[in-house]
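Box 3.1 A note on notation
Throughout this textbook, protein chains are presented in two layers. The first layer is the amino acid sequence; the second is a C-alpha cell string describing backbone geometry. Keep the layers aligned when reading.
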Amino acid sequence: MKDILLQEGQKLHAKMCEINDYIYANPELGNEEFKSSSKLIAFLEEHNFTVEKGLLGIETSFRAIYDSKKPGATIGYLCEYDALPEIGHGCGHNMIGVMSSAAGIALSKVIDEIGGKIIVYGTPAEETNGAKVVFAEEGIFDELDVAMLVHPSDVNMKSGTTQALYPLEFRYKGKTAHAASCPQNGVNALNSVIQLFNGIDALRQHVTPDVRMHGIIVKGGVAANIVPDEAVAQFYFRAATKETLDDILTKVKNIAQGAALMTGTKVDIRVVSAYADFLSVPAMDMIMEDSIIDSPLVEYTDEEYKYASQFNSKEYDLKDNIDASYEKGKKSIPIGSTDVADVSWIAPMGSITVTTMAKDSTMHGWSVVAQGKSSIAHKGMHRAAGILAQAALRVIESPELQKKIKEDFNKSKAGEEYGSLLPANVKPGDF
C-alpha cells in the first residue's frame, strides 16, 4: 500500500504545483478566499470527492468526503488558504490546502480496499478569526477519529504545543476640542490608549515567560490640532494555557478601565476571536514522526542551495542553506497560536512542519513570500502530502494503533473537555 501511495503522489505532483502557484499568485484574506477554495474544491471533485460548500454560512469553507463504504477509521485533513494583508502568502498557506487535498486524494486510491473514510475540510481565516473554532463549537469535527495537518517551515519538526490566544480591541471615546484655543473642553482618547500601553508594559514584569502581549494603535486622531475623540488599539494576548490567559485578561481589562478613568474617557472592549492551546497526543506524535522518518528524502540541486543562500541570516556551507535534517524526538518551541489547537481537543491531532524554504526564513515576512512557488517549496509540499497520506494509512491499517491513540487522547485531556475560549454570545469576527 505504501508503494501505491508513493505512485499516486507522483501522479499528482504537477497538479499540486499548478494549484499552489495559482493560490500564491492570487492571495486572498480570510473569509475572502473564493478563488483559492474553488481551486481546491475542483481538485477534490475531479477525484470523486463529494463536496459540501459554505459550512455554517462561511462561504469559503468546504467539507469534501470520500467514503469507502467499509468499516474503518475516519481521517480528517485540514486545509488553510488565507493570505496576510499587504505581503500575501507569508505563512505558506498557499501550500497547506494543496498538501492536505493531495494527501486525501492519494489515500482515496487505496481506501476502497482497506476501508475507512476521508474528510478534507476547507477552513478559512486561520490568520484572523479562525473558522476551525466555529466548526469545533458546532460539532463539525466530532465525526473524526484523527485529524492531520502539515505546516510549511524552514525545518522538519514534530509540532509541540501552541499558545492559547485572545485578541481584544479597545475603543476609547472622548470629546473633540481645538487643541490650542480651548483644550480644556476636550477629552483626549489617545491619552487613554497611551496609558493602556503603559499599563500593559508594566504588567510584563509580573507575567510568566510563556505570556506574550503585543498590540498596535490603529486610530489615534485625525489632526494634531484637534483633541482626539476616538482612539483604538488592538492587542493579541497569548499564554501556554487558557488558565494563565484568563488571569492575564482580568488584569488587562482592569488596566483598560483604569486608563479610561485616568483620562475621563469611556472604553468599549471587544472580543474578536480566541484560540485554545494545543493538546498533544503521544501516539499521534509517534505516527507523524515515524512517517517523516520513513518518507523519501528530498534531493536538492546546487542551484537550489545557492538560491536558498540569499534568504539565510548568515553564510553557511552550500548544502546547509536548506535544512533537510530531522532530529528524532525534537518538538517545536511553544510560540504562536492557531485554530488547529481547537480541533486538537475534539480529535487526536497529528501536526508537523516540513521544510519548504531556506534555513532562517522568517514567517510572516518577505523571505517566505519570495519562495512560495520555488522548486524548494514544490519539493517540500510534495513530501508533506506523502507524509500525511502515509500517516493516515498507518492509522487505518492498525486497530491496535487506533486504540492506543484513543487512550493517549483521553490521558492528555486528563478529564478536561473542549470548551471554546469565546464567550457564549460572541462569534469570531475580525478587527
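The longest strand covers residues 164-173. The chain has twelve helices and eleven strands.
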